[in-house]
Amino acid sequence: MVFSSVFFLFFYLPVVLIIYYITPLKWRNAVLLVFNLIFYAWGEPVYIVIMFASIAIDYTHGMLVEKCKARGNDKGARWAVASSVFFNLALLFFFKYWDFIAGSLRSVGIGFMPTLGLSLPIGISFYTFQTMSYTIDVYRGDARAQRNIVNFGTFVTLFPQLIAGPIIKYKDLDDQIDHRTYHVEQFASGVQVFVVGLAKKVLLANNLGMLWDAYKAMPVEQLTTAGAWLGLLAFAFQIYFDFSGYSDMAVGLGRMLGFEFMRNFNYPYISKSLTEFWRRWHISLGSWFREYLYIPLGGNRVSKPRLFFNLIVVWAATGIWHGASWNFLLWGLFFAAMLILEKGFLLQYLRKTPAAVQHIYTLFFLMISWALFAVEDFSRMGAWLAAMFGFAGGGLADAAAGYYLRSYLPMLIIAVVASTPLSARLWDRLPEKPMKVILPVLLLGGLVLSTAYLVDATYNPFLYFRF
């Protein structure tokens, strides 16, 4: 089940909200847990068993860690944390990376690992990271062990952010799981954020995704330099509005249910360096890797060689987290190399240049990174990168590039504006009275237009579901 579907918008969500709010406060987590499990099982009923196992393992390990710590048995607590982390990583490895490693080994003549052909459980990369951080936080004393398994299960399966984030650390939601407040302003704010996210996804990401798909399906020998850049520009906006739209919808749904989730995107395309970009893009993932991998490795309080090693480890992990494919590892290592250059010497020179130069530098290397990310086949990736730099089989431009540019230019202009804080700043300058009239009209218009697209469209992917 996806948020951007007519069934979810006009049946599942209203039913959840009505039953949730007529339920007495002490039973709301139990009701929400049931709806969470229905939401997850809707697409993959078989894998609900994994969800139950994840809840049971991490719930018991959290209490075991706290019990060992209370008795002064730090070694036992560390073993409990280690076994919890091992379980979660083993789960992720088995479903996400087993066939990838087996296929890679077989390609070099090593065939002891059979390929299993198992489908990837939706959201496994997100919920395993969430539950893994729980026992670590309990060990560190950053969170209390949750003694109510219903409340813990509600955290693990919370449907607004279950299958594509943002990645919520238990310590950030601990108090809200047990006790949360409800007020009309919070609910109204949630509706507003949700509709904005829905419009991002349906009106921008889906439409620009069709332009990217047209170029992705094109034979590389027909690709032009202009087409390579135009296609990747469409992908850059598609993945941003797809994932930030989903994150907005998750935050909005959370507020409707009384929760506050962290912001996951902060206008990343206005960044003036790649370092800044990664402070603004997928903030919850960056925060997770920084807290649970980068800092334990020593962070930046180490020698320069060790700092660079830490960056390589973190970015290799970030890359492979996104998918079981060599191009994702290459994508992660590309950012590791660029961030090493920036931290080593480049940033100090870059900051002395005009802001426009800094923006152009950042966007140029981001476009190269999206080519590594979006094109999984290495031979095709090489041809695509060559086309970007003028070595295209189809030449510099063709009639198709001109046609697509003319057709999608209004959408691209809207995407450019929507990916900056400009519209938000203009909105904040409106007088309060006109704003109260205009806002409901815009939200209703966005909902109606998005619904019309959903009723008519067959193209409605969520890119981050596959991660």
From TrEMBL:
Keyword Repeat in record: no
Matching InterPro entries: Ac/AlaTfrase_AlgI/DltB, AlgI, MB_O-acyltransferase, MBOAT_fam
Print the keywords alphabetically. Answer: Acyltransferase, Cell membrane, Membrane, Transferase, Transmembrane, Transmembrane helix
Q: Which segments cross the bilayer?
A: 6-23, 30-57, 77-95, 107-129, 149-170, 223-241, 307-324, 330-350, 357-375, 381-401, 439-459
Localization in the cell: Cell membrane
Any GO CC annotation of this UniProt entry? plasma membrane
| Superkingdom as given in the UniProt entry | Bacteria
**A GO term for molecular function:** acyltransferase activity
Topology relative to the lipid bilayer, per the entry, is: Multi-pass membrane protein
Would you kindly state one Gene Ontology biological process term found in this protein's UniProt entry? alginic acid biosynthetic process
Q: Does the keyword Membrane apply?
A: yes
Coiled-coil segments: none
Family, per the entry? Answer: Belongs to the membrane-bound acyltransferase family.
Q: Which PANTHER family match?
A: ACYLTRANSFERASE, PROTEIN-CYSTEINE N-PALMITOYLTRANSFERASE RASP
The protein in question is named MBOAT family protein
The organism is: Lawsonibacter faecis
